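Late entry, evening session. Most of the bench is empty. Finally got around to the prediction I had been postponing all week. Sequence below, unchanged from the version circulated by S.P.
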Amino acid sequence: MALFNKTTKKAEVAQTAEATKEVVKKVSTAPVGGHAVRSVLVRPHASEKAYGLHGVNTYVFYVSKDANKTLVKEEVSRRYNVKVVKVNMITDHGKVKHYRGRETKAKVAKKAMVTLKKGDKIEIV
């Protein structure tokens, strides 16, 4: 009686289990941690005060809002191949302005002041 045969059911279950294992193996996961999708550094900050700091080996960059000192240090070291000694973070809150009787708010900017090891330089054009 093939109707009550248990061996065929086990074989079918084993085949479906193998098929699901194959599907699971094909699915890849994204790397955990880090900012692989976008960069932490947005752009260098261009001002007279920032250029004056180049003499003491300090460079100023605009960074993303979720950046922290560790991420900035790793990104600058990796991108410019220099040794970072210290990172200071500055959050510039947007000021409220009035234009034609309406209040507007400037964007919130986050900057990082990166101090390099003596002798290291970054060429910013």
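Two things to note before I forget:
The helical segments are 6-26, 48-52, 69-80.
The chain is about 30% helix and 30% strand.
Will write this up properly tomorrow.
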